Amino acid sequence: MDLWTVILTIAVGAFCAYLFFTRNRNYFKKHGIPYVKPNPIFGTLTAAIFQFKTLPEVIEESYQCHPEAKYVGCFDFTTPVILLKDPELIKSITIKNFDSFPDHQMFADSPTEPLFQKNLFALTGEAWRDMRTILSPAFTSSKMKMMFKTMSECAINFSDYLVKSDSQHGALDMKDTFGRYTLDVIASTAFGLRVNSLKDRENEFYRTGKSVADFSGVKMFKFFFIKNFRWLSKLFNIKILDRAAEEFFSNAIKTTIATRQKEGIVRPDMIQLMMQSGDRKEKSPLSIEDMTAQAFIFFLGGFDSPATTMSFAARLLALNPEVQKKLQAEIDRELERGAGEISYENLHTMKYLDAVVSETLRMFPPSVIMDRVGDQSFILPPSLPGLEPLQIQPGQNVWIPCYSFHHDPKYFSDPEKFDPERFNEENKSKISPLVYFPFGLGPRICIATRFALMEVKLALFHLLAKCNILPSSKTQPRIELNPKTFVLEPKDGFWLNVEPRIKEDWL
Protein backbone atom coordinates (compact mmCIF):
# COMPACT_ATOMS: atom_id res chain seq x y z
CA MET A 1 0.00 0.00 0.00
CA ASP A 2 1.56 3.29 -1.08
CA LEU A 3 1.74 6.43 1.05
CA TRP A 4 -1.13 8.24 -0.69
CA THR A 5 -3.44 5.27 -0.19
CA VAL A 6 -2.61 5.25 3.52
CA ILE A 7 -3.21 9.00 3.79
CA LEU A 8 -6.50 8.74 1.89
CA THR A 9 -7.67 5.82 4.06
CA ILE A 10 -6.86 7.73 7.24
CA ALA A 11 -8.58 10.86 5.93
CA VAL A 12 -11.73 8.96 4.93
CA GLY A 13 -11.76 7.14 8.26
CA ALA A 14 -11.35 10.39 10.18
CA PHE A 15 -14.12 12.03 8.16
CA CYS A 16 -16.49 9.10 8.78
CA ALA A 17 -15.66 9.20 12.49
CA TYR A 18 -16.33 12.95 12.53
CA LEU A 19 -19.73 12.43 10.87
CA PHE A 20 -20.58 9.65 13.32
CA PHE A 21 -19.65 11.57 16.46
CA THR A 22 -21.29 14.83 15.37
CA ARG A 23 -24.44 13.40 13.78
CA ASN A 24 -26.63 14.49 16.70
CA ARG A 25 -24.75 17.67 17.62
CA ASN A 26 -27.55 20.01 16.51
CA TYR A 27 -30.45 17.85 17.74
CA PHE A 28 -31.59 20.21 20.50
CA LYS A 29 -30.73 23.36 18.57
CA LYS A 30 -32.89 22.13 15.71
CA HIS A 31 -35.81 21.56 18.10
CA GLY A 32 -35.33 24.87 19.92
CA ILE A 33 -34.55 23.21 23.27
CA PRO A 34 -32.11 24.80 25.74
CA TYR A 35 -29.13 22.49 26.11
CA VAL A 36 -25.65 22.08 27.50
CA LYS A 37 -22.98 22.33 24.83
CA PRO A 38 -21.26 18.93 24.78
CA ASN A 39 -17.84 17.56 24.01
CA PRO A 40 -18.31 16.14 20.48
CA ILE A 41 -17.32 12.59 21.49
CA PHE A 42 -17.91 12.14 25.22
CA GLY A 43 -20.89 14.45 25.60
CA THR A 44 -22.06 16.19 28.75
CA LEU A 45 -20.34 13.75 31.10
CA THR A 46 -16.82 14.32 29.75
CA ALA A 47 -15.39 15.74 32.99
CA ALA A 48 -16.82 12.84 35.03
CA ILE A 49 -15.66 10.18 32.57
CA PHE A 50 -12.10 11.50 32.74
CA GLN A 51 -12.39 11.98 36.52
CA PHE A 52 -11.84 15.74 36.57
CA LYS A 53 -15.17 16.27 38.35
CA THR A 54 -17.64 14.10 40.23
CA LEU A 55 -20.77 12.87 38.49
CA PRO A 56 -23.01 14.96 40.82
CA GLU A 57 -21.01 18.09 39.92
CA VAL A 58 -21.40 17.49 36.20
CA ILE A 59 -25.12 16.74 36.43
CA GLU A 60 -25.60 19.76 38.71
CA GLU A 61 -24.07 22.04 36.06
CA SER A 62 -26.68 20.83 33.58
CA TYR A 63 -29.45 21.11 36.18
CA GLN A 64 -28.53 24.71 37.03
CA CYS A 65 -28.17 25.97 33.47
CA HIS A 66 -31.33 27.66 32.14
CA PRO A 67 -32.85 27.88 35.66
CA GLU A 68 -36.43 28.46 34.48
CA ALA A 69 -36.51 25.58 31.98
CA LYS A 70 -38.66 22.53 32.68
CA TYR A 71 -36.04 20.37 30.99
CA VAL A 72 -32.76 20.78 29.16
CA GLY A 73 -30.84 18.79 26.59
CA CYS A 74 -27.74 16.76 27.46
CA PHE A 75 -25.61 14.24 25.61
CA ASP A 76 -24.67 10.78 26.86
CA PHE A 77 -21.59 10.48 24.68
CA THR A 78 -23.24 11.22 21.30
CA THR A 79 -26.82 10.30 22.29
CA PRO A 80 -29.28 13.15 23.02
CA VAL A 81 -30.82 12.87 26.49
CA ILE A 82 -33.52 14.99 28.13
CA LEU A 83 -32.78 16.08 31.71
CA LEU A 84 -36.01 16.74 33.63
CA LYS A 85 -36.09 19.67 36.07
CA ASP A 86 -39.81 19.98 36.78
CA PRO A 87 -41.48 17.79 39.47
CA GLU A 88 -44.77 17.58 37.58
CA LEU A 89 -42.96 16.36 34.47
CA ILE A 90 -41.23 13.72 36.57
CA LYS A 91 -44.64 12.60 37.84
CA SER A 92 -45.93 12.49 34.27
CA ILE A 93 -43.02 10.36 33.02
CA THR A 94 -42.62 7.95 35.94
CA ILE A 95 -46.21 7.55 37.15
CA LYS A 96 -49.04 8.99 35.03
CA ASN A 97 -47.57 7.96 31.69
CA PHE A 98 -45.48 5.04 32.85
CA ASP A 99 -46.70 2.94 29.92
CA SER A 100 -44.97 5.40 27.60
CA PHE A 101 -41.70 5.25 29.58
CA PRO A 102 -41.60 1.76 31.08
CA ASP A 103 -37.94 0.82 30.77
CA HIS A 104 -34.40 1.68 31.74
CA GLN A 105 -31.74 2.23 29.14
CA MET A 106 -30.40 -1.11 27.99
CA PHE A 107 -26.91 -1.60 29.32
CA ALA A 108 -25.89 -4.76 27.48
CA ASP A 109 -27.67 -6.67 24.73
CA SER A 110 -24.93 -9.22 24.24
CA PRO A 111 -25.23 -12.85 25.39
CA THR A 112 -21.72 -12.40 26.79
CA GLU A 113 -23.17 -10.26 29.64
CA PRO A 114 -26.16 -12.36 30.81
CA LEU A 115 -26.08 -11.14 34.42
CA PHE A 116 -26.47 -7.54 33.27
CA GLN A 117 -28.81 -8.31 30.39
CA LYS A 118 -31.33 -10.53 32.19
CA ASN A 119 -31.69 -9.02 35.65
CA LEU A 120 -34.86 -7.25 36.79
CA PHE A 121 -33.36 -3.77 36.45
CA ALA A 122 -32.43 -4.37 32.80
CA LEU A 123 -35.46 -6.37 31.65
CA THR A 124 -38.04 -4.59 29.51
CA GLY A 125 -41.70 -4.92 28.58
CA GLU A 126 -43.53 -8.13 29.46
CA ALA A 127 -40.32 -9.85 30.57
CA TRP A 128 -39.89 -7.18 33.26
CA ARG A 129 -43.54 -7.34 34.34
CA ASP A 130 -43.42 -11.12 34.59
CA MET A 131 -40.21 -11.13 36.64
CA ARG A 132 -41.45 -8.33 38.91
CA THR A 133 -44.60 -10.37 39.58
CA ILE A 134 -42.50 -13.39 40.53
CA LEU A 135 -40.15 -11.50 42.85
CA SER A 136 -42.44 -8.94 44.51
CA PRO A 137 -43.85 -11.36 47.14
CA ALA A 138 -40.30 -11.83 48.49
CA PHE A 139 -40.25 -8.22 49.70
CA THR A 140 -43.64 -7.78 51.37
CA SER A 141 -43.89 -6.71 55.01
CA SER A 142 -44.73 -10.27 56.06
CA LYS A 143 -41.61 -11.64 54.34
CA MET A 144 -39.47 -8.90 55.88
CA LYS A 145 -40.76 -9.91 59.28
CA MET A 146 -39.69 -13.49 58.59
CA MET A 147 -36.19 -12.29 57.63
CA PHE A 148 -35.90 -10.02 60.66
CA LYS A 149 -34.41 -12.61 63.02
CA THR A 150 -31.72 -13.67 60.56
CA MET A 151 -30.83 -10.08 59.75
CA SER A 152 -30.80 -9.16 63.44
CA GLU A 153 -28.32 -11.95 64.17
CA CYS A 154 -25.99 -10.49 61.54
CA ALA A 155 -26.35 -6.99 63.02
CA ILE A 156 -25.71 -8.22 66.59
CA ASN A 157 -22.67 -10.19 65.42
CA PHE A 158 -21.47 -7.05 63.66
CA SER A 159 -21.81 -4.80 66.72
CA ASP A 160 -20.32 -7.42 69.07
CA TYR A 161 -17.32 -7.74 66.78
CA LEU A 162 -16.68 -4.00 66.94
CA VAL A 163 -17.00 -3.96 70.73
CA LYS A 164 -14.66 -6.91 71.26
CA SER A 165 -12.12 -6.10 68.56
CA ASP A 166 -9.20 -3.73 68.81
CA SER A 167 -10.99 -1.24 66.55
CA GLN A 168 -10.94 1.40 69.29
CA HIS A 169 -7.15 1.55 68.96
CA GLY A 170 -7.22 2.74 65.37
CA ALA A 171 -9.42 4.11 62.61
CA LEU A 172 -11.72 1.74 60.76
CA ASP A 173 -12.59 1.81 57.08
CA MET A 174 -16.35 1.87 57.68
CA LYS A 175 -17.23 1.08 54.05
CA ASP A 176 -15.26 -2.15 54.31
CA THR A 177 -16.68 -2.89 57.77
CA PHE A 178 -20.32 -2.25 56.84
CA GLY A 179 -19.75 -4.12 53.57
CA ARG A 180 -18.85 -7.24 55.52
CA TYR A 181 -22.11 -6.95 57.46
CA THR A 182 -24.23 -6.45 54.32
CA LEU A 183 -22.45 -9.36 52.65
CA ASP A 184 -23.34 -11.62 55.58
CA VAL A 185 -26.96 -10.43 55.41
CA ILE A 186 -27.24 -11.24 51.70
CA ALA A 187 -25.48 -14.58 52.08
CA SER A 188 -27.81 -15.66 54.89
CA THR A 189 -31.14 -14.22 53.71
CA ALA A 190 -30.78 -15.05 50.00
CA PHE A 191 -28.46 -18.06 49.84
CA GLY A 192 -28.94 -19.58 53.30
CA LEU A 193 -25.18 -19.46 53.96
CA ARG A 194 -23.30 -18.50 57.13
CA VAL A 195 -20.25 -16.60 55.93
CA ASN A 196 -19.05 -14.37 58.83
CA SER A 197 -17.00 -11.98 56.73
CA LEU A 198 -15.82 -10.07 59.80
CA LYS A 199 -13.71 -13.05 60.88
CA ASP A 200 -13.18 -14.90 57.60
CA ARG A 201 -11.95 -11.75 55.91
CA GLU A 202 -10.87 -13.30 52.61
CA ASN A 203 -13.92 -15.46 51.93
CA GLU A 204 -14.90 -15.84 48.30
CA PHE A 205 -18.29 -14.18 48.73
CA TYR A 206 -16.71 -10.98 49.99
CA ARG A 207 -13.84 -10.91 47.50
CA THR A 208 -16.23 -11.43 44.58
CA GLY A 209 -18.74 -8.89 45.88
CA LYS A 210 -16.09 -6.23 46.35
CA SER A 211 -14.75 -6.86 42.86
CA VAL A 212 -18.09 -6.65 41.03
CA ALA A 213 -19.18 -3.56 43.00
CA ASP A 214 -16.02 -1.61 42.16
CA PHE A 215 -16.79 0.87 39.37
CA SER A 216 -13.70 3.03 39.67
CA GLY A 217 -10.81 3.63 37.28
CA VAL A 218 -10.82 1.78 33.96
CA LYS A 219 -13.98 -0.09 34.92
CA MET A 220 -15.89 3.20 35.07
CA PHE A 221 -14.80 4.09 31.55
CA LYS A 222 -15.71 0.59 30.32
CA PHE A 223 -19.17 0.98 31.85
CA PHE A 224 -19.87 4.21 29.95
CA PHE A 225 -18.37 2.81 26.74
CA ILE A 226 -20.39 -0.42 26.81
CA LYS A 227 -23.59 1.48 27.62
CA ASN A 228 -23.18 3.84 24.67
CA PHE A 229 -21.38 1.73 22.06
CA ARG A 230 -22.87 -1.72 22.53
CA TRP A 231 -22.09 -2.83 18.99
CA LEU A 232 -18.40 -1.98 19.40
CA SER A 233 -18.32 -3.67 22.79
CA LYS A 234 -19.85 -6.77 21.27
CA LEU A 235 -17.42 -6.67 18.34
CA PHE A 236 -14.36 -6.49 20.60
CA ASN A 237 -15.89 -8.60 23.43
CA ILE A 238 -15.48 -5.84 26.02
CA LYS A 239 -17.11 -6.92 29.30
CA ILE A 240 -17.66 -5.57 32.79
CA LEU A 241 -17.82 -8.92 34.60
CA ASP A 242 -15.09 -11.49 34.20
CA ARG A 243 -15.85 -15.15 33.70
CA ALA A 244 -14.86 -16.06 37.26
CA ALA A 245 -17.49 -13.73 38.76
CA GLU A 246 -20.21 -15.10 36.46
CA GLU A 247 -19.31 -18.68 37.38
CA PHE A 248 -19.26 -17.81 41.08
CA PHE A 249 -22.86 -16.56 41.06
CA SER A 250 -24.04 -19.37 38.80
CA ASN A 251 -22.46 -22.02 41.02
CA ALA A 252 -23.86 -20.37 44.16
CA ILE A 253 -27.39 -20.55 42.73
CA LYS A 254 -26.97 -24.13 41.53
CA THR A 255 -25.65 -25.22 44.92
CA THR A 256 -28.42 -23.43 46.81
CA ILE A 257 -31.15 -24.97 44.63
CA ALA A 258 -29.64 -28.46 44.81
CA THR A 259 -29.34 -28.27 48.61
CA ARG A 260 -32.92 -27.10 49.05
CA GLN A 261 -34.30 -29.75 46.73
CA LYS A 262 -32.28 -32.53 48.35
CA GLU A 263 -33.06 -31.57 51.94
CA GLY A 264 -36.59 -30.26 51.38
CA ILE A 265 -35.68 -26.78 52.60
CA VAL A 266 -38.26 -24.04 52.01
CA ARG A 267 -37.28 -20.44 52.81
CA PRO A 268 -39.26 -17.18 52.51
CA ASP A 269 -36.95 -15.58 49.96
CA MET A 270 -36.70 -14.70 46.29
CA ILE A 271 -34.72 -17.81 45.35
CA GLN A 272 -37.56 -19.97 46.64
CA LEU A 273 -40.06 -17.95 44.61
CA MET A 274 -37.94 -18.35 41.49
CA MET A 275 -37.70 -22.10 42.10
CA GLN A 276 -41.51 -22.20 42.24
CA SER A 277 -41.94 -20.13 39.06
CA GLY A 278 -42.68 -23.24 37.02
CA ASP A 279 -45.85 -23.84 39.05
CA ARG A 280 -47.58 -20.95 37.29
CA LYS A 281 -50.09 -21.82 34.59
CA GLU A 282 -48.91 -21.33 31.01
CA LYS A 283 -45.50 -20.13 32.21
CA SER A 284 -42.15 -21.82 31.79
CA PRO A 285 -39.87 -22.19 34.83
CA LEU A 286 -37.00 -19.78 35.05
CA SER A 287 -33.65 -21.00 33.78
CA ILE A 288 -30.53 -21.11 35.96
CA GLU A 289 -29.25 -18.13 33.96
CA ASP A 290 -32.43 -16.14 34.72
CA MET A 291 -32.20 -16.99 38.43
CA THR A 292 -28.50 -16.14 38.54
CA ALA A 293 -29.14 -12.73 36.98
CA GLN A 294 -31.74 -11.89 39.66
CA ALA A 295 -29.50 -13.15 42.46
CA PHE A 296 -26.66 -11.06 41.04
CA ILE A 297 -28.59 -7.77 40.98
CA PHE A 298 -30.04 -8.47 44.45
CA PHE A 299 -26.54 -9.24 45.71
CA LEU A 300 -25.12 -6.08 44.14
CA GLY A 301 -27.97 -3.87 45.39
CA GLY A 302 -28.07 -5.37 48.87
CA PHE A 303 -24.31 -5.39 49.36
CA ASP A 304 -22.81 -2.13 48.13
CA SER A 305 -25.56 0.52 48.22
CA PRO A 306 -26.69 -0.14 51.83
CA ALA A 307 -23.04 -0.29 52.96
CA THR A 308 -22.47 3.12 51.36
CA THR A 309 -25.59 4.57 53.02
CA MET A 310 -24.50 3.25 56.43
CA SER A 311 -20.99 4.62 55.91
CA PHE A 312 -22.31 8.10 55.10
CA ALA A 313 -24.69 7.90 58.08
CA ALA A 314 -21.82 6.92 60.39
CA ARG A 315 -19.65 9.76 59.13
CA LEU A 316 -22.46 12.30 59.46
CA LEU A 317 -23.16 11.09 63.01
CA ALA A 318 -19.46 11.33 63.89
CA LEU A 319 -19.40 14.92 62.65
CA ASN A 320 -22.68 15.76 64.41
CA PRO A 321 -22.36 14.33 67.95
CA GLU A 322 -25.56 16.01 69.15
CA VAL A 323 -27.54 14.04 66.54
CA GLN A 324 -25.72 10.85 67.53
CA LYS A 325 -26.58 11.36 71.22
CA LYS A 326 -30.23 11.99 70.42
CA LEU A 327 -30.39 8.84 68.32
CA GLN A 328 -28.67 6.80 71.04
CA ALA A 329 -31.22 8.07 73.55
CA GLU A 330 -34.03 6.79 71.32
CA ILE A 331 -32.23 3.45 70.94
CA ASP A 332 -31.77 3.15 74.72
CA ARG A 333 -35.47 3.80 75.28
CA GLU A 334 -36.40 1.05 72.82
CA LEU A 335 -34.02 -1.41 74.47
CA GLU A 336 -35.53 -0.60 77.86
CA ARG A 337 -39.02 -1.04 76.45
CA GLY A 338 -38.08 -4.36 74.85
CA ALA A 339 -36.11 -5.78 77.79
CA GLY A 340 -32.82 -5.43 75.94
CA GLU A 341 -34.12 -6.46 72.51
CA ILE A 342 -35.65 -4.79 69.48
CA SER A 343 -38.61 -6.25 67.61
CA TYR A 344 -39.58 -5.85 63.96
CA GLU A 345 -42.57 -3.72 64.95
CA ASN A 346 -40.64 -1.48 67.34
CA LEU A 347 -37.82 -0.88 64.86
CA HIS A 348 -40.35 0.54 62.43
CA THR A 349 -41.79 2.93 65.04
CA MET A 350 -38.43 4.60 65.71
CA LYS A 351 -39.04 8.06 64.30
CA TYR A 352 -35.64 9.62 64.88
CA LEU A 353 -33.77 6.62 63.44
CA ASP A 354 -36.01 6.89 60.38
CA ALA A 355 -35.30 10.63 60.16
CA VAL A 356 -31.52 10.08 60.34
CA VAL A 357 -31.62 7.43 57.61
CA SER A 358 -33.96 9.53 55.44
CA GLU A 359 -31.72 12.59 55.72
CA THR A 360 -28.66 10.50 54.86
CA LEU A 361 -30.45 9.22 51.76
CA ARG A 362 -31.39 12.78 50.84
CA MET A 363 -27.82 13.99 51.00
CA PHE A 364 -26.29 10.88 49.43
CA PRO A 365 -28.89 8.94 47.41
CA PRO A 366 -27.96 5.50 46.03
CA SER A 367 -28.18 6.86 42.47
CA VAL A 368 -27.12 10.28 41.21
CA ILE A 369 -29.57 9.98 38.31
CA MET A 370 -32.30 7.59 37.33
CA ASP A 371 -33.44 7.09 33.78
CA ARG A 372 -36.44 6.13 31.70
CA VAL A 373 -36.65 5.19 28.03
CA GLY A 374 -39.74 5.89 25.94
CA ASP A 375 -41.27 3.10 23.88
CA GLN A 376 -43.75 5.29 22.01
CA SER A 377 -44.08 8.82 20.71
CA PHE A 378 -44.77 11.37 23.45
CA ILE A 379 -45.22 15.15 23.57
CA LEU A 380 -43.48 17.18 26.27
CA PRO A 381 -44.78 20.68 27.07
CA PRO A 382 -42.57 23.64 26.11
CA SER A 383 -39.38 23.79 28.13
CA LEU A 384 -39.66 27.59 28.41
CA PRO A 385 -42.43 30.11 27.68
CA GLY A 386 -42.47 30.95 24.00
CA LEU A 387 -40.94 27.66 22.88
CA GLU A 388 -42.74 24.84 21.08
CA PRO A 389 -43.70 21.50 22.64
CA LEU A 390 -41.22 18.70 21.96
CA GLN A 391 -42.39 15.48 20.36
CA ILE A 392 -40.00 12.76 21.40
CA GLN A 393 -39.72 9.45 19.60
CA PRO A 394 -39.54 5.85 20.85
CA GLY A 395 -36.12 5.10 22.27
CA GLN A 396 -35.62 8.59 23.70
CA ASN A 397 -33.71 8.48 26.98
CA VAL A 398 -34.76 10.71 29.88
CA TRP A 399 -32.64 11.50 32.95
CA ILE A 400 -34.05 12.40 36.36
CA PRO A 401 -31.32 13.99 38.53
CA CYS A 402 -32.00 12.61 42.02
CA TYR A 403 -28.94 14.18 43.62
CA SER A 404 -29.71 17.63 42.20
CA PHE A 405 -33.33 17.59 43.37
CA HIS A 406 -32.22 16.44 46.83
CA HIS A 407 -29.77 19.37 47.02
CA ASP A 408 -31.99 22.06 45.52
CA PRO A 409 -32.62 24.90 48.02
CA LYS A 410 -36.05 25.41 46.43
CA TYR A 411 -37.10 22.13 48.04
CA PHE A 412 -34.68 21.74 50.98
CA SER A 413 -33.42 24.81 52.82
CA ASP A 414 -29.68 24.82 53.52
CA PRO A 415 -29.38 21.54 51.58
CA GLU A 416 -25.72 20.86 52.48
CA LYS A 417 -26.56 20.77 56.19
CA PHE A 418 -27.23 17.40 57.82
CA ASP A 419 -30.57 18.00 59.53
CA PRO A 420 -32.72 14.95 60.38
CA GLU A 421 -35.42 17.30 61.68
CA ARG A 422 -36.48 17.78 58.04
CA PHE A 423 -38.04 14.35 58.40
CA ASN A 424 -39.71 14.72 61.80
CA GLU A 425 -43.46 14.27 62.12
CA GLU A 426 -44.16 17.97 61.62
CA ASN A 427 -41.97 18.47 58.55
CA LYS A 428 -42.10 15.09 56.83
CA SER A 429 -45.53 15.66 55.34
CA LYS A 430 -44.29 18.85 53.65
CA ILE A 431 -41.74 16.96 51.53
CA SER A 432 -43.10 16.02 48.13
CA PRO A 433 -42.27 12.52 46.86
CA LEU A 434 -41.63 14.22 43.51
CA VAL A 435 -38.49 15.91 44.88
CA TYR A 436 -37.30 13.19 47.29
CA PHE A 437 -36.96 9.77 45.73
CA PRO A 438 -33.86 7.86 46.93
CA PHE A 439 -35.29 4.55 45.72
CA GLY A 440 -36.95 5.77 42.54
CA LEU A 441 -40.55 6.49 41.56
CA GLY A 442 -43.53 4.72 40.06
CA PRO A 443 -43.77 1.03 39.13
CA ARG A 444 -39.99 0.91 38.58
CA ILE A 445 -39.25 1.88 42.19
CA CYS A 446 -36.63 -0.36 43.82
CA ILE A 447 -38.28 -3.68 44.62
CA ALA A 448 -36.10 -4.21 47.71
CA THR A 449 -36.68 -0.84 49.42
CA ARG A 450 -38.06 -2.43 52.61
CA PHE A 451 -35.17 -4.89 52.73
CA ALA A 452 -32.52 -2.18 52.30
CA LEU A 453 -34.03 0.12 54.93
CA MET A 454 -34.32 -2.69 57.48
CA GLU A 455 -30.73 -3.73 56.76
CA VAL A 456 -29.47 -0.17 57.34
CA LYS A 457 -31.58 0.54 60.43
CA LEU A 458 -30.66 -2.71 62.20
CA ALA A 459 -26.94 -2.12 61.72
CA LEU A 460 -27.11 1.46 63.00
CA PHE A 461 -29.35 0.43 65.90
CA HIS A 462 -27.05 -2.28 67.24
CA LEU A 463 -23.86 -0.34 66.53
CA LEU A 464 -25.01 2.79 68.35
CA ALA A 465 -26.52 0.78 71.20
CA LYS A 466 -23.01 -0.38 72.11
CA CYS A 467 -20.59 2.08 70.52
CA ASN A 468 -19.85 5.72 69.86
CA ILE A 469 -18.70 6.80 66.40
CA LEU A 470 -15.97 9.45 66.35
CA PRO A 471 -14.00 11.28 63.67
CA SER A 472 -10.51 9.94 63.03
CA SER A 473 -7.37 11.88 62.16
CA LYS A 474 -8.24 11.21 58.51
CA THR A 475 -11.77 12.63 58.75
CA GLN A 476 -12.21 16.03 57.13
CA PRO A 477 -14.92 18.29 58.61
CA ARG A 478 -16.53 18.70 55.19
CA ILE A 479 -17.40 15.80 52.91
CA GLU A 480 -15.86 16.20 49.45
CA LEU A 481 -16.83 13.54 46.94
CA ASN A 482 -14.28 11.46 45.05
CA PRO A 483 -14.21 12.04 41.25
CA LYS A 484 -12.39 8.73 40.68
CA THR A 485 -15.63 6.76 40.86
CA PHE A 486 -19.21 7.49 39.81
CA VAL A 487 -20.67 5.95 42.96
CA LEU A 488 -20.72 8.38 45.87
CA GLU A 489 -17.81 8.24 48.30
CA PRO A 490 -15.67 10.86 50.05
CA LYS A 491 -12.20 11.74 48.78
CA ASP A 492 -10.74 10.86 52.17
CA GLY A 493 -12.73 7.64 52.51
CA PHE A 494 -14.86 6.50 55.44
CA TRP A 495 -12.16 6.25 58.11
CA LEU A 496 -13.72 6.65 61.57
CA ASN A 497 -13.02 5.65 65.15
CA VAL A 498 -15.45 3.34 66.94
CA GLU A 499 -15.27 3.03 70.72
CA PRO A 500 -17.45 1.03 73.14
CA ARG A 501 -19.92 3.10 75.12
CA ILE A 502 -19.37 3.29 78.87
CA LYS A 503 -21.20 0.35 80.44
CA GLU A 504 -23.51 2.56 82.49
CA ASP A 505 -24.66 4.32 79.32
CA TRP A 506 -26.34 1.29 77.76
CA LEU A 507 -28.48 -1.54 78.98
Entry keywords:
alpha+beta, Cytochrome p450, 507 residues, 8% strand, globular, transmembrane, oxidoreductase activity, acting on paired donors, with incorporation or reduction of molecular oxygen
Mean pLDDT: 89
Shape: globular
Annotated CATH homologous superfamily of the largest domain: Cytochrome P450
| CATH architecture group name of the largest domain | Orthogonal Bundle
For this entry, what is the oligomeric state of its chains?
single chain
Task: Provide the β-strand percentage band.
Answer: 5-15%
**Could you estimate the helical fraction of the residues in percent?**
40-55%
Q: Profile the largest sheet.
A: 4 strands, mixed
**In terms of per-residue confidence, which ranges show pLDDT below 50 for 5 or more consecutive residues?**
none
Radius of gyration (CA) equals 24 Å
Helix-strand topology string: HHHHEEHHHHEHHHHHHHHHHEEEEHHHEE
Classified by CATH, the class of the largest domain is Mainly Alpha
Number of helices: 21
Strand order of the main beta sheet, please? 1-2-7-4
How would you briefly describe this protein structure?
This protein is an alpha+beta fold. The protein contains 21 helices and 9 strands.
